[in-house]
Amino acid sequence: MANADxxxxxxxxxxxxxxxxxxxxxxxxxxxxxxxTTNVCxxxxxxxxxxxxxxxxxxxRPYRLHYxxxxxxxxxxxxxxxxxxxxxxxxPHGADAGEExxxxxxxxxxxAIDYVILMDxxxxxxxxxxxxxQDGDIRVVTPxxxxxxxxxxxxxxxxxxxxxCGELLEREGWTGYNAVKAAxxxxxxxxxxxxxxxxxx
Amino acid sequence: MSQExxxxxxxxxxxxxxxxxxxxxxxxxxxxxxxxxxREGLTQMLQRSMxxxxxxxxxxxxxxxxxxxxxxxxxxxDEFDFLEEDxxxxxxxxxxxxxxxxx
Lengths: 201, 103
Prior knowledge:
Helix content of chain B: 55-70%
Strand order of the largest sheet of chain A: 1-4-5
Helix content of chain A: 40-55%
Order of helices and strands of chain A: EHHEHHEHEHEHH
Mean pLDDT of chain B: 92
Shape of chain B: elongated
Number of helices of chain A: 8
Shape of chain A: globular
Low-confidence stretches of chain A: none
Largest sheet of chain B: none
Order of helices and strands of chain B: HHHHHH
Number of strands of chain B: 0
Oligomer: heterodimer
Radius of gyration of chain B: 21 Å
Structural class of chain B: mainly alpha
Distance between the termini of chain B: 51 Å
Largest sheet of chain A: 3 strands, parallel
Number of helices of chain B: 6
Strand content of chain B: under 5%
């Protein structure tokens, strides 16, 4: 389905890939939605998979980093899955290298991108500024947008959408709250009959 | 939320803090604005005291109309604006034809 030269207009960062790879909707996403990341994010996934143990307690952050990264890497290496990578030049280094590689993509190849999806709120602002600086019309949104694409095209039910948002809320704390709140406020979908009270804001 | 409440004074026993502030005011060229420093300092300490759960609770109270925007901004700082930007961005994206992105 996807060879090395295929480039999809949705660009995702490392933490987004890990979050959705750990979600209940991963199989649906990798079947239906084309995504592109960077070689730098792939390197971050490899590092997470190597630096965290398989035996980390289930549900812990190291566990999610390990298995989420492995799952995402598996998809990246599988030509049948619509998840591809582009090479960031010159290659950024440091703690924010993944985010920086996305920002460079936005600056260097704006015509190839419609959406940039990041887990980190400050990172979204930084890339939004880069888009504004060059009068681009790229949208920078939170990870639940990927779930929304499935929901909007009737590939998943409201229940599945809500449950995937609930997983993010539970796992990612304030970061996940930001992401899910933006989705719930932006597209009023009522999840109150589906999610436990403690997950609902 | 009313103008009256914005003029409220916070009182605490300053003791050596007052002495230190007054002393710095007298030696610092041009003096210092003790009230301004106190407001800045309290804002920073309030933000530093917030846990992730506190942030969620505060934003929910703001969302429900139980807390003023000004107070929510004091507590959440930049993160308040990040969230507002993200909500707008998602709302706009949700008007797009998402079927274009299916493979």
